[in-house]
Structures are given as structure tokens and as C-alpha cells.
Amino acid sequence: MDSKRLLPMIGHVRGKRSAVTCQLKCDNQCLGEVCNTTSNDYFRDIASSAVSRRAVLGGTAGAVALFGASQLDAAAAPVAEKALPAGRGRGTRGSRLVFDAINPVHFETDEFTVPEGYAWKPIIRWGDPLFADSPAFDPKKQTAAAARKQFGYNNDYTEIIEIPGSEGRRAVMFVNHEYTNENIMFPTDMPIEQKREIGMINHGLTVVELERKNRNAPYNYVKGGKLNRRIVIDTPYRVTGPAAGSELLKTKADPSGTKVLGTLGNCSGGLTPWGTLLSGEENYHSYFVGKKDLPQNKRYGITDKESVRGWEHTDPRFDTRNEGFENEANRFGWIVEVDPFDPKAAPRKHTALGRFKHEGANVIVGEDGHVVAYSGDDEKFDYLYKFVSKRKYRANDRRHNMTLLEEGDLYVAKFTGNSPASEIDGKATLPSDEYFDGTGRWLPLTKNGKSMVEGMSLEEVLVYTRLAADKLGATKMDRCEDVEPSLKTGRVYVACTNNSDRGKEGKAGPDEANPRTQNRDGHVIEIDELGSQSSTRFAWSLLLVCGDPATDENTYFAGYPREHVSPISCPDNLAFDSVGNLWISTDGAPDGIGYNDGLFKVTLKGSDRGRVQQFLSVPRDAETCGPIIRDQDKTVFVSVQHPGEDGTWEKQVSQFPDYNNTLPRPTVVQVYQKGRGRK
């Protein structure tokens, strides 16, 4: 890989966020032409039916009575804490995870920083052997055969499920691997073809067993665990839903259009109520070469230039100009579902949830029994989606529940602000009513097994979902990344990471849901479905307008005093603790505020609503991913992705996590309170 190809991003990232990350993760998509060039409006003026935030988000209107939403089917995992209707949380009982916020850490610091009284320990690192016959990791002698039996690279979404009957001592962990950085992974003199083959295998998914002495002890991974599994680039996936078998998915290698090899660009994900894991295929476009004049290729960012990793030179399916492989790129960009308790079960790609650059998908069971899955399309000016299952959830019927994502209705969001357009000044100055808020509608893309988009068939809507959403005039967002419904309240939280192009010449300007031009720091939206989780109407407000309040007076923290919060930039992944506090991991903070990325707690209730406290900071060049908050055990898990991204094989710039003068290794980390007999 030629490092000179990375130079265009230098300057665009202010020299803080690694230009290498931009190249390898998404092929510099924020530097190139914006994929969404439609002229959708933004409905800034107040609608006659608008309901204000004070009436909805601040009160009990739109409350949902959830049942079973936080339960894992008995066959998969123990029952979690039961969800409650909105506005009726379990009093003011606080989390057991008490800490003093750390100070932000300068972006060139190669340290993993935790609060006083806490310690950290790696659970598993890139290259760690998974099976009884796996070779030990040797960074100077890597092979594709060895990589098939080792933990993959750039761990992102992470979930841990306790194994029933183990009394908290055993668990299974699911991790996806987003992309690779061959510049720091391999010796310079390794042949390029060998680098490609090993890089291919280091993508994909991992399932691995964990064990610990007791609930107070950190986990260790189990080499040779019965549930251990590597799912790689040639693992068969089964295609489900209305587009399975479509002419748009058929290739020379798969004339049925129902079996796809591998998964690419996996970012965030979600745990289903029946104990399976979801993973979103995000920046898959950078792996393909295609005809640049096709509207669908342009809309999804596929070009005719050589791909970042050159896989088309190794496998012809990655060049969609090759006869018989014209549809190969259509087979990526889906939500993937994996059963971690069945190592022999084929993963599935669900076409009913639409095809775009999924950050992930997160599921909740509504009061009417239908499963609702939320998903963001992570690119500038793209959209927010939700899926409502056709069939209803059945408690303790795992076989039935595992079909719920195969049929249902798909929607895209349209936001309406309730402030005059003149008050949205692009600087994130609060409107006169002191809130960024309004209402919105879920516009149906599919309904009852039929297309709701004029001129497009059902299969076309699902395969070319971006084009379908354009036709409906959905609201262009500032990179919707993780979208998480709270099992305590039913409210939905959307992390909008950033959008440095908003308001630039020829591109969409600010609106009340995205109120800042050249938005480098991002914001978080809070949504309350009106009537039920399956509703087609919602109320919304901005919970956070992110940034460093010491240098930006137009940051906003739900009304909490700006001088008493931690600076936060580029919200990415979201999670909740046992009492309903929101936790945010960041990706890109060095570019926004000049500090390393980290993990932050945000209080959602009471007088401290909007208070942001930084819990940890990851090493230089790294991104904080896959947060898991187990505050009952005073424990937090995060995946540390792409540490030392800006280095080379000869000159590594990070030593995380071992700090032994070798090379950085993406790692899943456990943070725990010191003492309490931990060993």
C-alpha cells in the first residue's frame, strides 16, 4: 500500500486525526464527492401538528410500556432487568460505578487512562490464538492459515453474554473486525499478495468464550473454548428476506442469489432479545471497483479507481466490471445476524432491513409485541431508519424469534423543527424557546411486503435503499452512527458524529436537527416515539451539542452548566448502564477538540441531566468502540481500535497494550475497580 495515497487527507483532518484511518476505514469518503446530492428540504418551520419537547420529552406523553424487551430467551441467556414504562424509572437509585471524571488526554499521548481507583487489563488482542491447535502470534511471520485461527484485527462492536448456569463465571463474547492497516501490521518486505491474503482473513467476526474466578475477577479468554469461532471472508452467509434470490443479488458464483461469502466493513451492532448478535456492514464500498457511471455506484461511493487494498487483484468478485460479478457489491451493506451459541449455524444477512452503510442495528420489543430495530447510515447527509417486524415476539420461543428480522416494514426519518428558520444560524445558537426540538415522521419505504416508493420494486427499494429514501425526501443527517433505544424508557438516542461539509457551497445548510455548519464535534438526538415503539410519528430534541465548552460557547448539554462537564467530541457508539445513564464512546475527537478519544457517562434524569463525565481515554490514534457497562460489578469493557494508526512497520508510534517495544495491537479491554479480591 503506497503511503503517498494518504496525503490528500492531511490538512483535512488538521493533522490530529490520522489520515491513515480516513483512507483505510472509508477510502476518504468525506473528502470525495458527497454521495447524497439530492435536494431534500428540511422543514425548519413549525408544523401545525408539532408537539414541543416540554410536552413530550419532558412529560409522560408518548410513554411506552415495554414487555420482554430486555429479556434474552431462556435458551440463550439469563433474564435481564425488566424494562419500565417511560417516566417511571426505578426512583433515584444511582449506579454503583462511581468515579471522578478524568482530565482529557492530549492526542499524542500513548496511554490508556482510567479514573483513580480503577485498573485495566486486556482480555484479548489481535493475533491471540483461539483454538487448541492455533499457533502463537508471531508479528514477523504472519500467514493467512494462522490468521484463520487467531483473533482478528481492529475489533469494533463487542458484546458479552453470560452463559446460563455458570453463576457469572463463564460468558461468550462476540466481536467484529472492521478493517486492517497493512502499513503497521506487516514487515515492509512481505510480498503484497501475502499481505492481501492475511488482511482478508483478519476481517470478519469472532466468537470466543470467557471465564473468570468469580464476579469480582477480570475475564480471561478461553483458548479452545467450544463456542470459539472465526467467521472470515469465505464463510458462507444465508440471505433472508424479500430480496433473497433477487436478480439484483445473483452472481456467477452464486446464481441462486441466496449465499454470500464473507462480511466487510463491520462497525457497530446490537444484542437481540433472543440472544443473537447483529453487526452492520458499513464502508464496504472501499473494497470494490465498479463502473462509475452507474447511479447506484455513485450513490454508494463505488468508483472505477483501484481499491484501497487491491483485493480485486486477488479475487475477481471485488471488481464488479468483471462478467458475472456485476451484482457482488449488492451483496454487502446489510445487517448480519449471528448465533453465538451455535458454532455451526450460518450467519444471515437480512435484506428486510435495507442496504446502506449500516453503523449497526439495535432492537427493542414494543408494547404491541412487534420488534423494532433502529439503524443509522453513517455518511454525511444520509439518513436514519427503523424496521418494524411483521410477526410478534414470543417469550421463550427462540426459534420463532430468530425469524423476526426476515419480514417487516422499513421506514426512514423526516425531522421537523419547531423554531423559525431565521433562528437556526449555523452556529448552534439556541432558538428563542431554548431548545432544538420538534416532531418527525417515519416515512414508509416498504409496507406489508410491498414497495411504497413510486417507480421502484420491493427488491429495488431494499437493495438500493438510499435511492428509495432520496425519493421520499428524508432528512439529511450529520452521520447517524449508533442508534440505541433505552430499555428503561423506550426513548431512542442517535449519535450524529460530525459533518464538516454542512453549509459549504453547494451542500445542505443547517436545520434544527443538525444546527451547526461545518460540524466537527457532532451531537446527540433524543427521540420519543408517539403512542408506541411502532408509531410513525415521534418527538425529538437535541440532548447534546458536543465540543469543548472552554472554547465553544455554543455547546449544549441539555441545560446542564457547561463549565461542569467534560469536553466531548464525535459521539459514535452508545450504551446504557443498569439505571439508565447513557454512555458514549467517541471516534474522531482529536480532530474536533485535540484530545484522545474516550468513554463518557451522560446523566439523563434529574437535576444532573446532561452532565458529561469522562471515564476513560484510549491511546494515540485509537478509537473507543463497543462499550459494555456492567456497573453492578463496577466493570466496563471497551474495544480499542487502530492504536498507533499513523506509524509504519519500522517506526511504530504506539506500544499499546503490551508496551514491550513491538507493535500496537487492537485489543478488547476490561476496566474494573481495584481490590475486591480480583486476581
Task: Describe the protein.
- The chain is mainly beta and 679 residues long.
- It contains 9 helices and 31 strands.
- The protein has helices at residues 19-26, 144-147, 182-185, 192-201, 295-300, 398-401, 458-463, 465-472, 589-592; strands at residues 118-125, 155-162, 170-177, 204-211, 220-221, 229-231, 236-240, 259-261, 266-271, 277-281, 335-338, 348-350, 362-365, 370-376, 384-392, 408-417, 437-444, 446-447, 450-451, 480-485, 492-496, 523-529, 537-545, 556-557, 571-576, 582-586, 598-602, 612-617, 623-630, 635-641, 667-673.
- Strands 13, 14, 15, 16, 17, 20, 21, 22, 23 and 24 form a 10-stranded antiparallel sheet that branches.
- Strand 4 and strand 5 form a beta hairpin.
- It is globular.
User: How many helices in DSSP terms?
Assistant: 9
Apparent shape: globular
Q: What Rg do the Cα atoms give? A: 23 Å
Ranges where pLDDT stays below 50 over 5 or more residues in a row are 2-15, 41-92
Major sheet description: 10 strands, antiparallel
Structural class: mainly beta
Count of distinct strands:
31
Give the N-to-C terminal Cα separation: 43 Å
Overall mean confidence score, pLDDT: 89
Share of residues in strands: 25-35%
Helix content: under 10%
- What oligomeric state is this? single chain
Any key phrases for this structure?
679 residues; mainly beta; 10-stranded antiparallel β-sheet; 31 strands; 8% helix; globular; disordered N terminus
